[in-house]
Amino acid sequence: MAFVTLEQKGPVGIITINRPEALNALNDQVLRDLSAVLDQVEENEEILTAVVTGAGRAFVAGADIGQMSELSAAEAKRFGVLGNQVFLKLENLSKPTIAAVNGFALGGGCELAMACDIRIASEKAKFGQPEVGLGITPGFGGTQRLPRIVGAAHAMELILTAKNISAARALEIGLVTRVCPPEALMDQTLELANAIAANAQVAVRQSKAAIRRGLQTDMATGVAYESEAFGLCFATEDQKDAMKAFLNKEKLPGFKNR
Question: Is 111 designated active site?
């Protein structure tokens, strides 16, 4: 894939948007490359968690305005549908995902980060949904994910003013979970990814799925999903081994992930 690379470090797959000369702006080809890499991550049984980041000084500076400027209404809708299909694939990946936001995460870049399960930012990162300043709405899920993550009022302010915010402000409103020095970003992200990968993966993936499904429904339906996931885990070897070790005051050497 020309514009998206996949590197494996132990149980962690590092997905890098690699179009630095355009600040990693998202066009049709970048989105298709990302979709193909996500399929590789899903199919690779050795990859337990995935990190999404950008090459150079940007995470993703947005969708490609050069491409968008000439689109008709019908073409723009198709572009939005493509972006949303890819970001939904990322969001629904069975494996946990972490956005390592190293720089500009604007428009489609902010939307890409929000499709990940967890976001960690460099102190140099900038976030924003500048679309209304260009005469359009967010197109890759910004109007839907942002209020779910930071609440409706913060989402309204960000989207309707088209203003960018700092990493520190993103932390204040809950858009990211931590901010770190630029040189520590990948180390801290990999530390978190490996900590997740060290746990029982059936339980990890069932927990992620229950959270994701529950966010889309009412409490009664959500706890029904949780009960289903909870029960399923009791059919795994990991549950038997871990609880036996706990009761015997023994240290479990590791999980079998089955």
Answer: yes
With a CB cutoff of 8 Å and minimum separation 6, the contacts of 202 are: 232, 233, 236, 238, 257, 258
Report yes or no: 168 and 179 within 8 Å, Cβ to Cβ. yes
Query: CB of 115 within 8 A of CB of 141?
Result: yes
- The answer to whether residue 91 is catalytic is no
Task: Supply the pLDDT for residue 1.
Answer: 62
Q: Which of 45, 46, 131, 183 is catalytic?
A: 131
The helix (run of H) or strand (run of E) holding residue 5 is strand 4-9
Contact 104, 63 (CB under 8 A): no
**Helical ranges in 174-218 per DSSP H:** 185-197, 201-214
The active-site residue, picked from 21, 46, 111, 250, is 111
* pTM of this prediction exceeds 0.85: yes
